[in-house]
Specification:
- By secondary structure, the chain is mainly alpha-helical.
- It has a domain of about 160 residues: Farnesyl Diphosphate Synthase (Orthogonal Bundle), CATH 1.10.600.
- About 60% of the residues lie in helices and about 0% in strands.
- The protein starts with 6 loop residues before the first helix and ends with a helix.
- Its main location: mitochondrion.
- This is NADH dehydrogenase (ubiquinone) complex I, assembly factor 6.
Amino acid sequence: MAASTLVSVWGPLRPGVPGLCRCRQPRGLWAHAWRLPEPAGSGRSVAAVSGPGASGTDRYCLELLRKRDYEGYLCSLLLPAESRSSAFALRAFNVELAQVKDSVSEKTIGLMRMQFWKKTVDDIYCDSPPHQPVAIELWKEKNLDDKAYRNIQELENYAENTQSSLLYLTLETLGIKDLHADHAASHIGKAQGIVTCLRATPYHGSRRRVFLPMDICMLHGVSQEDFLRKSQDKNVRDVVYDMASQAHLHLKHARSFHKSVPVKAFPAFLQTVALEDYLKKIQQVDFDIFHPSLQQKNTLLPLSLYIQSWRKRY
């Protein structure tokens, strides 16, 4: 899909995004928002989040999430207290699986670790069942192959089996069984998968790997070598534009269910704040996926999440 055909999705391609200052916040909001726990390395205690009786395993999940999935960590903080521990455990488990690929040099070792985690899940259900359902659809072993996705649909299917599944489980921990919420979770998970693929491109490129969908690259005459040498040519940015537009459409579809989704489910979908933030940033830099600003952490993200939570929106 050429960039020119997608103007209706994004609107005019010009920088400038309305600021948060146009929204009126309730009294004391700023002070409350900035009391959210800080990112890893701050040295701040997690006791306030996990509670005074938190076990060592709870703290491990918290710290792992703070270091490896900070946005997921912030979103989990805004879940109801009774569901927070389960969400931390689910996301920490997802991080453990996600780290397998980057922590091994040989596929065989990676497959052994994936088998270990599969057996671990079986052991949990057979010998020591948890209080909440924590089964997660494990990453498909084919992901250990260093191959690009053949097309955007393959990437979306992978995102459905990982990111969306994680959201389905989060909904379960909230006690929600709703078809509209499931539809929204499916689209948000796919948007998350596409954005994650985009965000990880500079990192993968540093390791001589490219996972962007081959069909979109071929459509614009772009090779993997173009991304490895960090090309800023227009056709390279058109590939990024098409993928970002697809993620944007998934967010739009997810929000079309807003009036039908139970309000209780909204905290599970706060990841949309971080996704939209990235999509706006990449639009501002004209879809230059290697722009340094895209690698900087948004220090206002905790506040943005709190505002969205307070407004009962996703």
